Amino acid sequence: MATLTLNKLEKSFPLGKSYRRVLHGIDLTLNDNEFVSIVGTSGCGKSTLLSIAAGLEDFDGGDVLVDGVPIEGPGLDRGVVFQSYTLLPWLTARGNIEFALKAAGTPASECRDIAQQHLELVKLGNAADRWPGELSGGMKQRVAIARALSYRPKILLMDEPFGALDAMTRHQMQQLLVEIWEKHRLTVMFVTHDIEEAVWLSDRIVVMGQGHIDSTFDVNLPRPRHESINRTPEFIELQHDVLSRIQQHAIG
Ligand SMILES: Nc1ncnc2c1ncn2[C@@H]1O[C@H](COP(=O)(O)OP(=O)(O)OP(=O)(O)O)[C@@H](O)[C@H]1O
């Protein structure tokens, strides 16, 4: 079980001698096993929201709760994947995962096997001894996902994880993510600029305006979602509706 609740969340950043209010009154609950995408114009506060949920950024008011319990900074109940490759260059693919496992308090004798299992989960079982510099962008992101999942978080927080990948690799990564999500039944918060990606992956899409939630869309498309689903009228209509909401904010 894992629910993530953001309750009346407030966040400001210093701006000169004053403050810029970046999030105001965010109320959002991600239900157990739910895949929720956050979309919105650049600068509306998506990454700040995700960083707060990860416990990496503090906040000025409100609550962040996992299964009803307030978070106190980062925790093993939440795995995080960012757009930029965050692997340590001096450790192999497996070494990067072992490093995270050790930091999470996993007994040293178990780290190697768990790391290998998770590399296999992301279809990189044969690349365990490769260095980050020898991996493609997609492979690096697969290692980052394996690392985030290795200590068995209940919630996965992803900030434009496929934003730097080419279209084909991005598509493969989306399919892999859905496969993993279906197997592990994680609760996912997924920040993206790609509306087609959001519709294809999500149970629900949250559109943010500047610092607030504008609207939410339930994605009632059947699962598993085959590639051809993005050509159905339902898919295209939803994509159009989400884009229209975002554009309302871009315009004014
Ligand atoms: N550390 C910081 N200090 C000051 N202002 C910040 C900081 N981080 C973010 N901001 C500001 O907060 C606002 C929201 O930023 P955030 O990165 O959350 O937006 P975003 O929706 O994720 O944008 P993008 O889609 O471009 O990544 C922006 O105006 C940004 O300039």
TrEMBL record:
UniProt-listed InterPro entries: AAA+_ATPase, ABC_transporter-like_ATP-bd, ABC_transporter-like_CS, ABC_transporter_ATP-bind, P-loop_NTPase
SMART domains: AAA (SM00382)
PROSITE patterns per UniProt: ABC_TRANSPORTER_1 (PS00211), ABC_TRANSPORTER_2 (PS50893)
Protein name (database record): Sulfonate ABC transporter ATP-binding protein
Organism: Pantoea coffeiphila
Limits of the ABC transporter domain: 4-235
Superkingdom classification of source: Bacteria
Keywords per UniProt: ATP-binding, Nucleotide-binding, Transport
PANTHER family tied to this protein: ALIPHATIC SULFONATES IMPORT ATP-BINDING PROTEIN SSUB (PTHR42788:SF13), TAURINE IMPORT ATP-BINDING PROTEIN-RELATED (PTHR42788)
Any matching Pfam family: ABC_tran
CDD domains (UniProt xref): ABC_NrtD_SsuB_transporters
Recorded family membership: Belongs to the ABC transporter superfamily. Drug exporter-2 (TC 3.A.1.117) family.
GO terms for MF: ATP binding; ATP hydrolysis activity
